[in-house]
Design a protein that fits this description.
By secondary structure, the chain is an alpha+beta fold. The protein has a single domain (2-71), classed as Orthogonal Bundle (Arc Repressor Mutant, subunit A), CATH 1.10.10. Helices cover 58% and strands 20% of the residues. It has helices spanning 2-13, 24-31, 35-48, 62-71, and strands spanning 15-16, 19-23, 51-54, 57-60. Strands 1-2-4-3 form a four-stranded antiparallel sheet. A hairpin with a 2-residue loop joins strand 3 and strand 4 (57-60). Helix 1 packs across helix 4 (62-71).
């Protein structure tokens, strides 16, 4: 569930340079979680193919956008 919430937070943050992405440091604040919990959620989302890391950003892939919309109960 934490990985899906991570995707939802990134999606709600909006686009950065044309992509749904968010700095990893801001994710900890947005999720109000400890760094270890956020890293575990990022790792799980990477394993599931929902996100990828681009330098200091965590970026949604197509499956991550779908997951975010599902978590937010938005049309897909």
């Amino acid at each position: 569930m934490a990985a899906a919430n991570l995707c939802a937070v990134i999606y709600m943050n909006g686009k950065v340079a044309g992509r749904y992405a968010m700095p990893a440091k801001k994710l900890r604040e947005a999720l109000a979680s400890r760094a270890a919990e956020v890293e575990a959620a990022i790792d799980e989302a990477v394993e599931r193919g929902w996100v990828c890391r681009q330098r200091s950003f965590v970026e949604l892939k197509a499956a991550g956008i779908y997951t975010a919309k599902d978590a937010l109960d938005l049309p897909r």
